[in-house]
Write a structure and sequence with these properties.
Number of strands: 5
Distance between the termini: 26 Å
Shape: globular
CATH superfamily of the largest domain: Cobalamin-binding domain
Number of helices: 9
Strand content: 5-15%
Oligomer: single chain
CATH architecture of the largest domain: 3-Layer(aba) Sandwich
């Protein structure tokens, strides 16, 4: 939720509120102003957007929002990301470094929430990881097939809705049944993930945002921060 961000400015709070309330024109215009005119940190702007999308996902889970709102939320984030991503790549440099490792990521079956996953995928990519994003509502067998094909070092299971916890558990169990569980680390992420959910699913760790996901991958693969 928004309170996970510290020192939120009035403009950032407006952006969170407008995105969460589906005020597309106002939200996108403010984000463009922050990125292009005020030269705000694009990673920070994306994290503010993620906080707003957590609110959207919560409202969806509670029956206040429905699929059209999720679609509109995704479209707003895509518009903002299309401007933020090139700025991030420019400021961080397009380093043609060898990739640090492979990360396979997808939203588990029964969940269409992809905002957080998209940010994590992008941030892992620009931090030197070879990322394969296999989308949303991903069946257990699809994860297994993609793992066999991609041979990842880390697998990320994303999901926001409460029902995703069962899907994450089923996916981890399916991976184990396929004899693949000890070949890589599994991290989970989503707006309501905590220690209890981690234990329930059988994953190795969880992260509440892209920064924590990167830190986990760096730790597991021995990458210097």
């Amino acid at each position: 939720m928004a309170d996970k961000l510290s020192d939120i400015t009035p403009d950032e709070q407006n952006l969170i509120d407008w995105l969460a309330d589906m005020q597309e024109e106002e939200a996108v215009a403010l984000a463009m102003k922050m990125l292009l005119e005020e030269k705000k940190d694009p990673i920070r702007v994306l994290e503010v957007c993620r906080a707003a999308m957590d609110i959207v996902g919560q409202r969806f889970a509670e029956g206040e929002y429905f699929l059209p709102e999720l679609v509109l939320a995704g479209e707003m984030l895509e518009s903002i990301s299309a401007v933020a991503k090139p700025i991030i790549k420019e400021t961080q440099g397009d380093q043609e470094q060898s990739k640090l490792g492979k990360v396979l990521i997808g939203t588990v079956h029964g969940d269409l929430h992809d905002i957080g996953k998209n940010i994590v995928s992008f941030m892992l990519d620009i931090n030197g990881y070879n990322v394969r994003d296999i989308g949303v509502d991903v069946a257990v067998q699809t994860f297994i097939d993609e793992i066999n094909d991609f041979q990842p070092d880390v697998v990320g299971l994303s999901g926001f809705l409460t029902l995703a916890f069962d899907s994450m558990k089923e996916t981890v169990e399916g991976i184990a049944a396929a004899g693949l569980r000890d070949k890589f680390k599994i991290m989970i992420g989503g707006g309501q993930i905590d220690d209890n959910v981690l234990k329930y699913t059988g994953a190795d760790a969880y992260g509440v945002n892209a920064v924590e996901a990167i830190a986990l991958c760096n730790k597991w693969l021995g990458v210097e921060a």
